[in-house]
Amino acid sequence: MNSIISSYCKIKNNAIWINGKELVIDAKEVDLTIFLTGLYRQINMNYPKFFKMDNLCKLGMLAAELAIRNSVGFDKLEKDKIAITLSNNASSLDTDRNHLKTIIDKIQYFPSPAIFVYTLPNIVIGEVAIKHKFAGENAFFVSEEFDAELIHNYVSILLNNNDTTAVIGGWVNVDGNEYDAFVYCAEKSNFNLDKEEYKQIHSAEAIRQLYN
Amino acid sequence: MTVYIGANNIVSPLGFTTKENFGALLQGKTGVKQQYFSFSDTAFWCSKIEPKDIEQYFDVVSKGNAYTQLEKMCILSIRDVVQQSGIDFKNKENLLILSTTKGNIDVLEGAYKNIDENRAYLPVFAKAVGDYFECINTPLLVSNACISGLLAIIIGKRLIESGNYKNVIVCGADKISEFVLSGFKSFNALSEAPCKPFDKNRVGINLGEAAASIVLSAEKIGTVKLSSGSSANDANHISGPSRNGDGLFQAISNTFVDSKIKTVDFISAHGTATEFNDEMESIAFTRAGLQQALLNSIKGYYGHTLGAAGVLESIIAVQSMLSDTLICSAGFEQTGTSRELNIIKHTEKKTINSCLKTASGFGGCNAAALFEKI
After folding, report:
1. Range of B103's domain?
2. How far apart are the C-alpha atoms of B133 and B309, rounded to whole Å?
3. CB-CB: which of A103, A130, A142 is closest to B178?
4. Which residues of B touch A140 (CB under 8 A)?
5. Is A58 left (phi over 0), alpha (psi -120 to 50) or beta?
6. Does B51 touch chain A (CB under 8 A)?
7. To the nearest whole percent, how much of chain A has pLDDT over 70?
8. Span A12-16, mean pLDDT?
9. Would you state the pLDDT for residue A74?
């Protein structure tokens, strides 16, 4: 079975790329939370749960939202058969450090479930699943750096299975103020690539080029 | 293609080999007891390995203190499996998969004087363990909340089937830390007594620590195979299970799709002993037509070992199949779920040809895998 990349979104170095075109952002911002909130407003996401999320989830939600919105026909797919597999380097360490701050001082001791629940990297998968009602396969991998072979290989394995018709795949990393995200939609395809749409053959090389 | 189950190991308070662990379960021993920690005046009920035991075993393996406690647990567990199976990670055909939720998080709590803080990054942890075994392939690290271990096994099977590797060793591991204890306490999820999975009076989980390793192979190395496996998301809530068991039901259904059998002799459930998790499982198993299958949760012996749980519990399930012995579901007395399950009340001999293993976790994730005798 062959597969295609039907859309992608890259958020990196204060710039956003969707299907090969740059999305001009309203305000350049150095603080990550403010940057992500600005982008949320600019694209009219209108999803109040966004504000309770940690930066890893905010970044992943925005990248997934933009990839999904720009994938033609993705909304018509069976949601139980859409898988999500993401990866990163820092796992949930950004929020882990925040949880540690709440327990380091025995007098000012205030661990909170609202923070603790975000100390797992796959919560970003859960948040994307909830918003878009994607109930298929899940997997979160942690690797030293963006690993196009790993991502392509596992997305392809999922797409070869009857339980999966499409996959949200990629990389979402947050470590302090450093961040980068590359999220794409992959689908099974008979390679009738419509020139009006953004589509290309799903390969490790294609993923690497789009990410870089 | 058939994927076979081979050598395995468990490092836990109940022993440092699978044999010791299974022997302890047959005798009804539990690792769960009241433990005091330097950071708290109150004791926690949990299943914790004595650090001196790890040191004693590890001394034989390697001198010096270049490894964290979690890395030592993983190395001891994987080393036993490597020795039993002869799998050589210097060979391109063999892959190590690590499964953990928090890895070396205790490094950030100042647990070690001589270990750099960057060891809290999971790839650095994976490299430390992988380098010990001179792995030619970078170990693959799966971190997917409480389904990590079972999901890592399913991923291992898929990588073998797709021709990427011939043998995979999956090692799941997590350690009890102030980080995790304080977090689950803030959720009011900790039981102040031994946990009681599926029981009417269950009030929450006990945490546990363990490292557990298992061989998956394309070669016919044993008499149990991993027939199928699947994962699914509830798409409902990040910290609460679905009220109607949607995700777990879907994972189970997909696991049986291509299977010749439609029910199993035995279910090794997740059974954390929280009110909502166990209730959700009872609904999912009933929807899947499995309410008659004999079922246990072994959290009463090991607590919830997080990233290790799926691997540890799969190993015990396979041992149950090989020895045709059902292990009593410790802590269970009275039905405490809206759907009645067939819970194992006494450890006893019974032919077990098939077993369904399940897991569910934060982020709405669920996984199921089917093991069968060949």
Report:
1. 3-217
2. 23
3. A103
4. 142-144
5. alpha
6. no
7. 96
8. 92
9. 87
